[in-house]
## 1
Amino acid sequence: MELNQLPATVLTRTISRPNTTIYYPQLAGLANQQAEKDINRAIHQTVQGLIHEQQRVQVPGNTQMQGSYEIKTNERGIFSVVLNNYAYTPQMAHGMTFLGSITADIQTGKLYTLRELFKPGSDYVKVISENIKRQIKERSIPTLNGFTSIKPDQDYYLADKALVIYFQLYEITPYYVGFPMFPISVYELEPLINEKGPLAILSAD
């Protein structure tokens, strides 16, 4: 794996219809065209999934919807992006936002679940959960029913040599807290990480 892999070229696409404007990224010019198709399809499916999630929670009415994205990593052949969807229907107490994220290898097109970042059989759920418990205490983050554990497929993204675990609104905290985000240094997780996966690539010298 070449560590000097050039960043992927990212184009912005738009879904535009009455009361709805959603911007999302599409990769272009990848050496592996199948990888490009696979990653772009996954991004588009995630965008559509966020739209459907909003339709599930919004009351009938004149719903306003906006979507955006933020690229968190685009180096060493690893691409990690967070997709944001905000919607509000008048008469509701407040708007609702959902996040989605994708982490992929731009050379192969492989999309990584949280589990796949780590060695098979490793106790990554426990290690990450204990780290989050510590951060909740240190940062005095209010929780709804206390925090016990992440899900094996918990939402995450990669940024600045860190794994960032995040939770949806209301998942573990009151709405006013926003999205609880928990960065964990790659180096803290080193004994557990998949040696051919994105964490190993990003932490290599």
## 2
Amino acid sequence: MRLKLLSPGEMNADQKETYDEAISGKRGAPPAPMMAWLNSPDMARHATRLGEQLRFNTIFPAKLSEIAILVTARHWTSHYEWFAHKRLALKGGMDPKIIEDIRDRRTPTFDDPKGKMIYDLAKSLHEGKGVSQALYDEAVKVLTERGIVEVIGLCGYYTMVSMTLNTFEFGLPEGEVSDLG
């Protein structure tokens, strides 16, 4: 870990206010990258609010949102992000084979057209740096424009999370080993 994470007793007033807001939210605990972001308390506050919105309040159930998050974690080879969201994806009902395929950089087989479209959008955003007209047109039909915006939000936010976790070398919990090679 490249950064000393502050305990609540070491935080200044702005940092503590952001920390307290995060733990009183739907997560019940501070998201790991927020502990690094607290070096910029206002950024931490806004980023954590955005993360809560994207995790809990999109039009997608967790099973679908986690597709975009796992594609992002895999794209960035973010070990901590993968570890955390693999568990959330399984808890949300995602087929373990889909998780395995994303981990191994294979295109999964989806039984839900929305899941396939979220995967295709996320892959295109990360690898193609955009979306073709044909993919966009199909995504509007399958996900709606709001859904496209929310997939972009998920990929963008979790890119920032992955960059933070990778830059500061957040480790996995004691005894855990990364699935990512």
## 3
Amino acid sequence: MPDSILPAPLVDLAERVIIANRRAGRTIAVAESCTGGLVSAALTEIAGSSEVFEAGFITYSNDMKSELLKVSQDVIETFGAVSIATAWAMAQGALIKSHANVAVAITGIAGPGGGSEQKPVGTVVFARAERGGSPDKVVADMHHFEDNGRGGVRLQAALCALELLLPDSPAP
């Protein structure tokens, strides 16, 4: 896609996601925090993505995570915004607020500030939820990406999130 302003690896993977989900008859939604819409932007770079991509929720603040995706304030206060519990609740919220078959959530610390000893810059949590899936089967994981700048962390996170949207993708 020569006219894209996004990095080629991101657009190429987004195209694979759209094609694979179209073939599988699945629709998708994303709930993004630290990626700030990068995953949604990559998906919508692909012509015909509207057949597959249903909704993108950019919930950067904790208040919006609660208001738009119904993430409990107790979950955020107890586990933090960058936690498996919050990512899982975001993915579930994206499914509830859309008609998608599968949703992926991303929340993390892109930097340069905001990190801590327990959750340094580059810490990103992903969760995938499937409509009709067992709510006690949490598909989520925390990754520690190299702190190669804010843009680098966001790109690595977006690539990982797209991988999770491929049908039959392994757990994060």
## 4
Amino acid sequence: MIARFKDLCMDAADAHRLGGFWAGILDGELVDTGDGDTRIDPRAAASNAESIWVNTVPEPRTGKTRVHLDLRLAEPEPAALLAAGARLVREPDAEISWWVLADPEGNQFCAFPPRVGARPGVFELVVDSADPAAQAAWWARVVGGRAETAAEGTTSLAGAAGFPWDHWVFDPVPERKRVKNRVHWDVELNGAEVTPLIAAGATLLREPTPATSWWVLADPEGNEFCAFPARPTP
């Protein structure tokens, strides 16, 4: 194991508007970080890894991001999400039992009906993949856990260090990645250097700068993620 899951990030044209939407539907506190960005801290979170950072970026959204969240609803219908500003993309039908929605900046996410014993909110992180099994196996080497492949080709990573939700799913899709993801995750390294991640197959996209303490990398299918050095032990 090289690192642990740290948190999730979203690119935004308007970090306060997008952060306000997600804070509202996740029953979270919207935190103004003072630099134009925001953070959502869900009130019922079990760990800081459930926080979502919303970062202002200059480039507009183009194409479909390959990373999205699945939410468990508190009510049988997503009326509250639509009232908060979500847009309906697809209703349940003979093929799917969930709603596909988009947030105010067009990022798609899925909303599932309530389930007995399941708390409302985020329960899955889903990553579109050309080779789900290989992707899950690679990330298992990075953050631990085990890859479990279902009959339909979807592969889940179970037991990843620091991962806060029920499922981390790598879903088969026919298309390759073409644009930068608007949603990505961060990891915290076990040490101070990124060398083990690069040796494992990550691609270095950007070194730390005077204003940033983290590396920007990409996994074997080009999904961007940030790696932070290990926090000093008290």
